[in-house]
């Protein structure tokens, strides 16, 4: 039955969120709760020579000041600090571990007081002297120190040779700045002391079990001594994938003081967590005059910290999109005196595809080809790196439907040729691509005799709508109205789930629900058949289905008994099933989502003002579980893409190695006035190979391609190619 | 944030007494700027003197046909007051170009005049800044200065004044009424803010024990031909890179009277009587507007990242004057620069 899957079901947690009933990590109360405030380093590299906490300790209401010299024990092996998401190479950051300063903004002390204001005030009374050391934070000036990391994709053919021979070439650097996630909810942890060594930790995180295991290993605790809960997350976008330092600090303080402790970071302090690393993308394309490619070379040079190698796939995306006999990809890192970057919505693709798609636009200009036409001429039906077909790939349809909705055929290809009054009009497009991943997830279903079901799973809902899709899938699978379904998520004691990220949670949790629901159905069928005079007695269990609260014959002959009757009869109050769903490994096909983004800009050239007046984003992402939450996902991605193109940039003064716009007044994201029409199209993409429901996930695809489409539109409007993002008005006036 | 004492002033005289009694005290009105700066440890008042309940919330007509606006009138109330909308739409427009609706509801006239620079180094106590800590040096001169001043700078500070409202008030020729230990005085808005010179820690010429009680708008409001044009990095809710308050009095196409002030380019709203004089008696044409812009921008100097502001300001002046001349002022509600 399909009453809910595929519909525009409203969020089941919507009411709790808008009425304030939904509680976030920093909102849980506890008896005798203490408040911690973080003191941060103000130098980029060196050591703490002296740290004097005596004045802070004298402030009335201060309970303690924890520092590297005054704290309970912390694990001393790197392995203990490596969470599920930690980079393979490196030594994870350990807050308050020793006197070394590795980045500006590093936490160096935690002032713990009876209330937050006192802790914050006393933090200004912690006196620090440093021994400073030389440092470097500027990617561009350190570019020649870049070192190659793992090859994301094997080279094919001889790209360098093919490039020199190519009749038409384009090669350029595209520079993407550092960006910060700025989720609305501040990073916060409330660690509740149970009186006998155990802790319940309410944390802002994308993965409660990841945090739970991490805390146990860092603090040497047994699994049942720490429980991590995170029922609601006010946005995270990747910043909550790894345990952040506030959870370590709150836990440390609770264990040290044997009391409950809350640590909330300020907006400013959140700029010393992870970020999208600044990246210089060098793309070289070689083509024949007919618009087919001979060579693709893509090199990315990105920031990482000195203590961990963080890298994502920026360069390999062309393998998914454009046929080329020769290709070469390399990813390089520059170690700087900064904190380690982390995942941020469509990590690697948001930046790498931006560069690739700007380069494709420049190639189209060089070839005098329409940008869509060029992409169709190089269209690849196979993932070239592994030479695999796709489980499904409706990208052609995305181009067609997107172009149609946008009116692309009316585009005059000449730059500066279209106007609307005083404004220049530019039309640009780009392709988007992301992965369709799926992970093992376990789900427990408890069906009670009153026809209600509770679904539980440790997965987080980071605002994406996991509560809702889990309820939808369960309602359909159990044949119950959605109001009879309750969903519990994000508690480390619930059935296993990985961190919520990579767009894998929708498919993964949905199929886990199906697995567990299938077991429930089998049990109900068995019980129903066993009832005296059962109308289902002579039916095969496989031909029995759950629908409308009934256990019914699936042949539609109308034979049915109610769940309530069966359970009453069997003297059962509840049926409980827990199942781990593992997807069978299948290396025979590539799995991706795709999109075609069309953008219109209107530019007041005299004043350099760019308005993104229209975006059409045509997305092929398998089956859409919920068109409402799905649209919201893509919409958010598009708005963020506008920000990437025009606004977002973390600005650092490299003389101090300090971020100078660490607040959302000066770190610009689009406001309402910057957002105009956004038209979203979900292209039909049946996919019965990828998984049973044909789901691919929508978390990241919405942003990919958007910045490039806008940059290409800016070029079309003005004839100016701006390869350094964001495209601010001064760059247009130059 | 520091600990501080809190007193509520019972009347203006009480506020002045409280100020005199504690040299570390600060007045607080809407708190939208002061509290932020306290949270950053930039301002560390020993005492807050809450003036928000003083009876300085009236908007009254003056004998000569102008308006007197109490120092505690919220920015929103001022912008939407019928007399302001009818007679001083330039002021209404400038206020609505600033901050957000929520902030404008809290912000007061006096606080708006007194708001401090948004220079990032001023806000970051870990970096040198002459305005925050006199004598430590100016980090912006050789640092990140994209948002900084191009006019009236000194070797000790290149900060800008962030207020939009003040730019319109400067163009309109408003007066500031002040009360202090030695009585009342009135100064022109254009003399209220100062240039940094060698004392960048002083933003204004307000004496240490003084309080703003009101501003006064002269009778002539330029209600027909005006525009407030604000250029920024996004279309709303950002400080000006450059803003222009332009007001004209026209007879046919001839300029009888002109007012021009720039925001975002100096330590104070930037006006040039010379530029305005050059417009008087001329036809309202882009050429004449351009010449006035050149005069207004005389002496502009670029630092490493803010050179674009000079040409941008010139173009914005011409555009704003065109909007004013054609009686099509920039709307602050449209998602578009006209
Ligand atoms: C995110 C953000 C964006 C903003 N964007 C803009 C913008 O685009 N354009 C713009 O113009 N402004 C902007 N503002 C600033 C805003 O306009 C000011 O914060 C506001 O006007 C200050 O008024 P207030 O009453 O809250 O002042 P307060 O914060 O109460 O006081 C500010 C200062 O004024 C002093 N003071 C207050 N009243 C008096 C008085 N009567 N006499 C003497 N001294 C007094 C106080 O002692 C204090 O030093 C923005 C602010 C924020 C936080
Ligand atoms: S410009 Fe002025 S406010 Fe900014 S750092 Fe220099 S002295 Fe300080």
TrEMBL record, chain A:
Signal peptide: none
InterPro entries: Ald_Oxase/Xan_DH_a/b, Ald_Oxase/Xan_DH_a/b_sf, Ald_Oxase/xanthine_DH-like, AldOxase/xan_DH_MoCoBD1, AldOxase/xan_DH_MoCoBD2, AldOxase/xan_DH_Mopterin-bd_sf
Regions of compositional bias (Basic and acidic residues) in chain numbering: 140-157
Gene3D superfamilies cross-referenced by the UniProt entry: Aldehyde oxidase/xanthine dehydrogenase, a/b hammerhead, Aldehyde oxidase/xanthine dehydrogenase, molybdopterin binding domain
SUPFAM superfamilies recorded: CO dehydrogenase molybdoprotein N-domain-like, Molybdenum cofactor-binding domain
Residues in Aldehyde oxidase/xanthine dehydrogenase a/b hammerhead domain copies: 19-134
UniProt-annotated stretches for the region Disordered: 136-164
Protein name: Xanthine dehydrogenase family protein molybdopterin-binding subunit
Automatic annotation (TrEMBL), chain B:
A family per Pfam: FAD_binding_5
Top-rank lineage group of the source organism: Bacteria
Domain FAD-binding PCMH-type: 1-222
Entry-linked InterPro entries: CO_DH_flav_C, CO_DH_flav_C_dom_sf, Diverse_Substr_Oxidored, FAD-bd_PCMH, FAD-bd_PCMH-like_sf, FAD-bd_PCMH_sub1, FAD-bd_PCMH_sub2, Mopterin_DH_FAD-bd
SMART domains given in the database record: CO_deh_flav_C
Keywords carried by this UniProt record: FAD, Flavoprotein
Protein name per its UniProtKB record: Xanthine dehydrogenase family protein subunit M
Species assigned in the record: Bradyrhizobium agreste
